[in-house]
Specification:
This protein has 332 residues and is α+β, with helices and mostly antiparallel strands. 33% of the residues lie in helices and 21% in strands. It folds into two domains: 190 residues, Fructose-1,6-Bisphosphatase, subunit A, domain 1 (Fructose-1,6-Bisphosphatase, Chain A, domain 1, 2-Layer Sandwich); 124 residues, D-Maltodextrin-Binding Protein, domain 2, CATH 3.40.190.
């Protein structure tokens, strides 16, 4: 696996991702279930903050002029009741490098609150927080966007193996993609070479494997059933959290998944960090990603994908038939 372009960015990001996954695993082992609540009531763990601080520090040191657009800010830590969480985060830093202050950690976290610009990184420190809390799939997701186009994507996957399949034995996988250079997977420890990922060749729904979220609230279950009635029912379904779905699809173990508009929130849109890292991985593996209207993903609308209602990810062969089926629905 040789990359002439973005070699420096890759060399910086890979060890950051490896250590970030180590932090996530340690937090989960030591802090099981401990979390505080953001204003939207979604759980945010010590790992989210610690990983964001760790990666933002590394990116700022290596690329000080780059912006980082990430999910968290230090506001919750500085609010009443947040100080104990901040002290727990500091503990994980102290074990890796003594003498780092809580204030410095907050500074690194807030380096990730920048606005999108010509060149910027997107970071979801723990994508799939509910999966993280329950012991399911989660990933550390990082991507680089230049001039509105994702150029590099990384996923640190603690609960996948080097075949891109779910694994509970702690092996873990690291996935990366570079524009025009393919998508690749290797072990987290770096002891084996990376191998290239390719999507499946399945072209009919009756043979397809569909990915769906564990959380029913993450999609519109009723519309999904309507789609199956029109497009055909798949051979099987796998339920898992996070952008790990992109890896299973890129490795050819699954063929399609989508994020439908929620019935109670029809105007809701996904965040840029929830899509960009995985998107380039599926594209470079030979697959396709669009919104539910068939339009390309627009990364120039801010932190949310405001111009993209819903998301469809596929091996490419099933994309048009599924979009056509969606277009026939009268209730979406």
């Amino acid at each position: 696996m040789k990359f002439e372009s973005y070699r420096n960015e890759i060399d910086v990001a890979l060890p950051l991702l490896r250590e970030a996954v180590s932090i996530a695993r340690q937090v989960r082992e030591e802090m099981k279930g401990n979390s505080i609540q953001k204003q939207d009531d979604s759980p945010v763990t010590v790992a989210d903050f610690a990983i964001q601080a760790w990666i933002c520090r590394g990116l700022r040191n290596a690329f000080p002029s780059d912006a980082v657009v990430a999910e968290e800010s230090s506001a919750a830590l500085l609010a009443p009741g947040g100080r104990s969480t901040l002290e727990r985060i500091k503990k994980f830093f102290d074990e890796r490098e003594a003498g780092i202050s809580a204030e410095k950690i907050c500074e690194w976290i807030d380096f990730g609150t920048a606005a999108p610009s010509r060149r910027f990184w997107v970071l979801d420190p723990v994508d799939g927080t509910k999966g993280f809390l329950r012991g399911g799939q989660y990933v550390v997701a990082l991507g680089l966007i230049e001039n509105g186009r994702v150029q590099i994507g990384f996923l640190g996957c603690p609960r996948l193996n080097v075949e891109g399949r779910e694994s509970e034995n702690g092996e873990g996988a690291l996935v990366l993609a570079v524009r025009g250079k393919g998508a690749w997977i290797g072990p987290l420890d770096g002891k084996l070479p990376f191998r290239q990922l390719k999507v499946s060749s399945r072209a009919v729904m009756s043979e397809a494997v569909i990915l769906r979220s564990v959380e029913a609230g993450h999609t519109n279950v009723g519309v999904m059933e309507q789609l199956f009635a029109v497009a055909g029912r798949p051979a099987s379904e796998l339920h898992l959290d996070s952008q790990a779905k992109y890896v299973l699809a890129a490795a050819g173990h699954a063929d399609l998944f989508c994020y439908l508009l929620k019935k109670d929130k029809p105007d809701s849109r996904m965040k840029i960090w929830d899509v960009a890292p995985g998107a380039i991985i599926i594209e470079e593996a030979g697959g396709k990603i669009t919104d539910l209207n068939g339009a390309p993903i627009d990364y120039t609308a801010g932190k949310s994908l405001l111009r993209n209602p819903g998301i469809l990810v596929s091996n490419g062969r099933l994309h048009t038939p599924f979009l056509s089926a969606y277009g026939t629905l009268t209730v979406k």
